[in-house]
């Protein structure tokens, strides 16, 4: 029987119990020789240097230190980095790919709760739940919202910006809802968009035609303020913007203006800055819901990431292709 590969955990200790509860940890230990001791939070200590010397695979998570050339020099046997969370951009240096180390991420598993949050937000936004709930609680004399005139998801036009893992899951979950789906993504062809159930359009056209717009693009220099004052002005009166991607994709000043006038609504799980100052107007507007970056995996959902990681380690130990492989060419444009 071939010797089990040696695995080293590198993440913040708080993440371990939910990612790898006792049964998953036991499965992990049947697949790899897990280095004893706490998960590494630094690669510069004597203990870290000692365990990295024997490591075949790094199992990383939130708070993993950056893996650069200096770290790789202390880990001559390293063959894979398997990330039990979403983006690897913060801790995987390009040198990792240059050294021939395989990189995998549980980003697809982490996209599931983000997509669920997004679809729930779209359904609520179509009903104008946030403004109507505020009226119901505070000012029922200001108008009769009970009729729900013009509300509801049926026959709506929904625009998705970015065919990311989350964006594709959102499209998939919206298809049964009798809606029209638009997609803006420079890396997707019209044929690919049709296969996803959407019509490929430019971002300007998407903003003009959509009644609800959901953002799923990565934060890059070229996507900063992708939705700027000009594009936000293209949105229809009564439209809703939903952002579960990155706050920098939206011009906060311009968005605040449009929401403050009541012309559009917003659901924001990310903001710029993130978090917003406690006195920021977006936190007080009745037609805006701001949540504290909670759409991604939390609580019970973290186990899904652990299950994905264990399955990846099984494939790694068996010499099979990994399902969450990240290519070096993708590093610059992932979230």
TrEMBL record:
SUPFAM superfamilies: Formate/glycerate dehydrogenase catalytic domain-like (SSF52283), NAD(P)-binding Rossmann-fold domains (SSF51735). Residues 45-321 form the D-isomer specific 2-hydroxyacid dehydrogenase catalytic domain. GO terms for molecular function: NAD binding; oxidoreductase activity, acting on the CH-OH group of donors, NAD or NADP as acceptor. Residues 132-295 form the D-isomer specific 2-hydroxyacid dehydrogenase NAD-binding domain. The keyword 4Fe-4S does not apply. Keywords: NAD, Oxidoreductase. InterPro entries: D-2-hydroxyacid_DH, D-isomer_2_OHA_DH_cat_dom, D-isomer_DH_NAD-bd, NAD(P)-bd_dom_sf. PANTHER family: D-ISOMER SPECIFIC 2-HYDROXYACID DEHYDROGENASE FAMILY PROTEIN (AFU_ORTHOLOGUE AFUA_6G10090). Belongs to the D-isomer specific 2-hydroxyacid dehydrogenase family. This is Phosphoglycerate dehydrogenase.
């Amino acid at each position: 029987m071939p010797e089990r590969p040696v695995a080293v955990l590198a993440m913040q200790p708080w993440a371990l119990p939910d990612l790898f509860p006792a049964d998953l940890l036991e499965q992990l230990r049947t697949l790899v020789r897990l280095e004893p001791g706490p998960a590494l939070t630094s690669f510069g200590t004597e203990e870290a240097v000692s365990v990295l010397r024997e490591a075949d695979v790094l199992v990383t998570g939130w708070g993993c230190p950056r893996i650069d050339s200096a770290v790789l020099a202390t880990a001559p046997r390293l063959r894979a980095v398997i990330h039990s969370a979403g983006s690897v951009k913060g801790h995987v240096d390009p040198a990792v790919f240059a050294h021939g180390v395989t990189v995998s991420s549980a980003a697809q598993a982490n996209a599931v709760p983000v997509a669920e949050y997004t679809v729930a937000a779209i359904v609520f936004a179509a009903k104008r739940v946030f403004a109507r709930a505020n009226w119901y609680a505070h000012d029922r004399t200001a108008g009769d919202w009970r009729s729900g005139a013009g509300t509801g998801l049926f026959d709506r036009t929904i625009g998705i910006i970015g065919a990311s893992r989350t964006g594709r899951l959102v499209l998939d979950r919206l298809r049964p809802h009798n809606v029209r789906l638009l997609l803006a993504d420079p890396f997707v062809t019209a044929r690919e968009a049709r296969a996803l159930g959407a019509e490929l359009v430019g971002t300007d056209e998407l903003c003009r035609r959509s009644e609800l717009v959901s953002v799923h693009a990565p934060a890059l220099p070229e996507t900063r303020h992708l939705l700027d004052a000009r594009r936000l002005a293209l949105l229809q009166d009564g439209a809703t913007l939903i952002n579960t991607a990155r706050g920098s994709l939206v011009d906060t000043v311009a968005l605040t203006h449009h929401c403050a006038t009541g012309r559009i609504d917003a659901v924001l799980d990310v903001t710029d800055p993130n978090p917003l100052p406690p006195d920021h107007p977006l936190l007080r507007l009745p037609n805006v819901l701001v949540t504290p970056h909670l759409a991604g995996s939390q609580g019970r959902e973290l186990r899904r990431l652990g299950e994905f990681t264990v399955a990846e380690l099984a494939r790694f130990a068996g010499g099979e292709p990994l399902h969450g492989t990240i290519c070096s060419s993708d590093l610059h444009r992932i979230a």
